[in-house]
Specification:
The chain is α+β, with helices and mostly antiparallel strands. Helix content is about 35%, strand content about 15%. The strands form three sheets. A four-stranded mixed sheet has the order 1-6-5-4, with helices on one face. The chain is globular, with a radius of gyration of 26 Å.
Length: about 350
């Protein structure tokens, strides 16, 4: 269905048609929106009109915060480029993607200023071997180019690219990174970003506010994003030539989980019984419980196996193997297409 645009957007598109080709080229091919993983479901059920945000505030202090400010020469514009680059690296670490897009607001235009776009997409390709110093340069260049073409409505660009519209937020970008001193939050509700990272300087400290939609993220999840962001900033500040691949965002809490908490799998195990015996007990007590779901690439209905069905298949195969002479401690190779039969 064709979307309806305001007269102001239609006029801006007509007057600035020369910028459309730039956006179509800059956001093609294979553009995918970049965002932090949703914690609650797929996010597809979130009502588009739900604009409730909650905010978590983190304060960067100490030597590395002072070093960041000195590196940026206490300039809000330079600090913003630094934080956009750091946010892109954080998103790369969370998603595993190297093609990263974030939203950057238009600079403040005064009380009577008219905004064709509340924010523009900034796209950068992060290579594993690239240093953070190089990422800063790429981010600055991408922002400069985006602002040269800021007067063509980005909503219309998104429609021309035929991007998926069934996810909450804006289809071009999920995260907006802004500086309170040089940007205005007033018009961002028009594009409904899912996370807005707002920063400002106070003395030798940097305040980072994370505004997020609680329908998608919990406060605990956002706290982890913020903690990893602070760890990332401290590491790139200590070594600007650190590469994308080398830069770790793991906090002490993350390391505790990875090395100890999630590996604490010890438990009492019934002696004299095999895994097959225990699964047989499960199948008898919960025969209709679904234990396997396979979604193929042909968009058919997902296939499912219950405990009872899987137990029956396993016993059938075991009987066939015994007929072939297979016994205990015998290794059997399995070759099959990716399917539910692999189970």
């Amino acid at each position: 269905m064709q979307k309806k645009y305001t007269d102001a957007l239609l006029m801006a598109a007509e007057q600035n048609a020369c910028h459309l080709d730039y956006w179509l080229e800059a956001l093609s091919p294979e553009m995918a929106r970049t965002g932090f993983p949703f914690e609650f479901g797929s996010g597809r059920q979130l009502a588009s009109e739900d604009l409730h945000y909650e905010t978590f505030e983190a304060i960067m202090t100490g030597e590395y915060a002072r070093q960041v400010l000195e590196f940026c020469k206490f300039s809000d514009h330079t600090l913003h480029i630094f934080l956009v680059a750091a946010s892109m690296l954080l998103l790369q670490k969370h998603t595993g993607h190297h093609d990263i897009i974030v939203g950057v607001p238009i600079y403040k235009q005064g009380e009577d200023g008219h905004y064709i776009n509340p924010a523009v997409p900034v796209r950068v390709l992060l290579e594993d071997s690239s240093s953070f110093r190089k990422l800063l340069g790429l981010t600055r260049s991408a922002m400069v180019e985006a602002f040269k073409h800021q007067n063509y409505p980005v909503e219309m660009v998104a429609d021309k690219l035929s991007l998926p519209s069934d996810l909450p937020g804006f289809s071009l970008f999920d995260v907006v990174v802004m500086m309170d001193a040089i940007h205005s939050r007033a018009f961002l509700d028009r594009i409904k970003p899912n996370i807005v990272i707002t920063s400002f300087q106070t003395g030798d400290s940097i305040v980072i506010q994370w505004s997020y939609r609680p329908s998608l993220f919990s406060g605990k999840a956002v706290f982890k994003f913020a903690s990893r962001f602070e760890k990332l900033v401290s590491r790139v500040t200590a070594r600007m030539d650190i590469t994308v691949e080398e830069c770790s965002i793991l906090t002490e809490e993350d390391l505790q989980d990875l090395l100890h908490n999630w590996n604490g799998t010890g438990t009492d195990y019934p002696s004299g019984r095999t895994v097959a015996d225990l699964f047989g007990d499960l199948a008898r007590s919960n025969p209709r419980k679904v234990v396997c779901v396979f979604e193929g690439d042909d968009k058919r209905q997902p296939e499912r196996l219950t405990c009872e069905q899987l137990e029956h298949r396993a016993r059938s195969i075991a009987g066939l193997l015994r007929e072939k002479g297979v016994g205990p401690d015998t290794i059997v190779a399995v070759m099959t297409e990716r399917s539910i039969q692999m189970m």
